[in-house]
Amino acid sequence: ILGQSRHQANEPPIASNWRPVLGHAHHFLKKNGAMALGPSMFEGHGPDVFVVEASLLGQRVYVARGPKAVKLIMGNSAIRTRILLPDESLDRMESNRIGILFNHDLESWKVNRKCFVESVGRPRFLKGLAPKIDELMSTLVQSLDEIADKGNPVLINEMMNLISMDCIMDVLFTEKRVFDAGEFYGKVPPLLFKTVLRNEDAKHRALSQKYNAYVRELVRAKKAEMENAIPDEMDFATSAFMAAESCFEDPETIFKQVNAIVKETIGGGTDTASNSMAFLVYELARHQEIADVICEEVIAVAGWNGPIRHEMLNQLPMLEAALLEVSRIYTLFAAGTTRHITEDVLIDGVLLKKDSMMFLVIGMAHWDASYWENPSEFDPTRFLEKPAKSEGPHGFGWNLSPFGYGVRKCPGQELALLEMKVVMANLCRRYRFRLADPKKPLEVKDSLARECGPLEVIFEHRVEA
Ligand code: HEM
Q1: Does ligand 1 have an atom closer than 6 angstroms to the CB of 402?
Q2: Terminus-to-terminus CA distance in the chain, angstroms?
Q3: How far, in Å, from the CA of 305 to the mean position of ligand 1?
Q4: What is the CATH classification number for the domain harbouring 356?
Q5: Over the stretch 15-41, which tens digit does the pLDDT of each residue have?
Q6: Which of 10, 93, 313, 437 has the most CB within a 10 Å radius?
Q7: Residue 127: CB partners within 8 Å, gap ≥ 6?
Q8: Other C-beta atoms lying within 10 Å of the C-beta of residue 350
């Protein structure tokens, strides 16, 4: 089952695809493990069936599907703990009982989450965010212009990885680097976070040690830098130190806390944004009319070369709609939102029993034909007008929740959307994207999150540079 794929050539992936679920179940599926698995768990049935119970190596698993699950389960503050990972994996990531992503200790998670949310939401940090990414992009387009001059295809999945990594590191530490981040990549492999979770051999252990040491060094340097005056527009790591200092007293705890926030931002914020942008480029290459509208929007507010400022970002409706549409169709965590049920809880007459695992299949609702017209079609215009009775995380009912919803929803949502808007606005006004081989099916890999496979794209200048 793990080896099968339901992707059709040239079709976007089925958002309710069950492969990511099995990726998550990896830890529990031993060599001869068996799991009662049928399509009813992940797709095919109407919205009435919203929790399916299964058994995985003798452990009870609930698969919560569709919009009702998003509203009732994600919105329920009693169901807060994420799936339990082996201590061994957590120790290797140095993230045992610290941070928020895999912290199983609810009390500790609560204070850590408060700290994360405070760091990422601080106005003095947010103020400088768009100019910072915009400045980085203005340096990058010089390299991209050369690529466009030559007309050679680029691997957009890899390029977006580099851009996204550069953005996140700049956002965290105000690091100015050039486009070729190769050397840096050796220290922080972008997929390390995922690899660490799944692979236990010596190579990965060594890589994670290197990575942990590298991040510690950056955080230490940031702390030292904070002895001087803190600038009015601060970076994320500075904001995280301020948040941690307001939550904890012990300097060692503060340091560990900031370290965790930084690693979770790198882990949660790089692959996610880069794959979303790679999928968006793919769709824009196939829908030039949408790309043209986005280009016109950007030029109307910022001109061909002017800076893209924070206040302009809500004047780019088609770009925002295109990002939502990509998040709907490609749903990075289609089935990868997990919970561990810590106490018996009754949801809409369904008893969810203590000590069970849960997978929340948010992607199912994203492709529900009873809610979305032509759900497999990339059509951002569906987001240009909100329905009159707007509800749900994005105002489109409970049928759209790519960042989750409720107590554990993604705390990086605003940052991710802002970053993607600034990056894509810079690219869309300057270049037209063409697929090097339009007939080649898009490769999509499902693991912890959904990934864009090798994708060759040609950049064409929109204006003479
Ligand atoms: C396109 C980009 C992104 C997508 C689609 C995304 C999606 C998600 C989803 C679905 C969850 C799980 C929510 C749940 O369990 O209910 C999550 C959690 C999380 N995300 Fe994101 N995310 C993105 C970007 C980011 C960024 C930029 C950051 C860092 C600033 C980030 C940090 C986190 C963290 C730390 C959590 C764990 C929260 C917790 O467990 O309490 N994410 N994200």
Answers
A1: yes
A2: 50
A3: 32
A4: 1.10.630.10
A5: 444 444 554 454 444 333 444 444 455
A6: 93
A7: 232, 233, 310
A8: 14
Atom number in ligand 1 closest to CA 339: 15
Cβ of residue 335 lying under 6 Å from some atom of ligand 1: no
Q: pLDDT for 158-209, tens place per residue?
A: 899 888 888 998 899 987 554 444 444 444 544 455 555 555 556 667 777 7
- Please answer whether residues 15 and 367 qualify as being in contact, where contact means their C-beta atoms are separated by less than 8 angstroms: yes
4 in any annotated domain: no
Least confident segment among 119-128, 261-270, 431-440: 261-270
Give how far Cα 242 sits from Cα of 97, 251, 253, 300, 413, Å.
Answer: 21, 12, 13, 38, 21
Condensed to tens digits (0 to 9), the pLDDT of residues 34-57 reads 444 444 555 554 566 788 887 776
Interval between CA 253 and ligand 1 midpoint (Å) = 23
Residue 234 inside a domain? The answer is: yes
Residue 14 lies in a domain: no
Contact residues for 388 (Cβ-Cβ < 8 A; gap 6+): none
Confidence of residue 359 (pLDDT cuts 50, 70, 90): confident
Q: Hey, whose CA ends up nearest to atom 11 of ligand 1?
A: 410
Distance CA 145, CA 426 (A): 12
Domain range enclosing 209 = 19-461
How far away, in angstroms, is 268 Cα from ligand 1 center?
6
| Residue 120 alpha carbon to ligand 1 centre in Å | 12
Give the chain's domain count.
1
Q: What atom of ligand 1 comes closest to residue 333's alpha carbon? A: 10
ipTM score of complex: 0.99
Write the single-letter amino acid at 35: M
Which atom of ligand 1 lies nearest, measured to the CA of 419?
27
Q: Is the CB of 74 under 6 A from ligand 1?
A: yes
Q: Express each pLDDT in 369-386 by its tens digit.
A: 888 899 889 999 999 987
**Does the residue 237 lie in any domain?**
yes
Q: Give the mutation target among 403, 423, 451 for probing the ligand 1 site: most ligand atoms within 8 A of CB.
A: 403
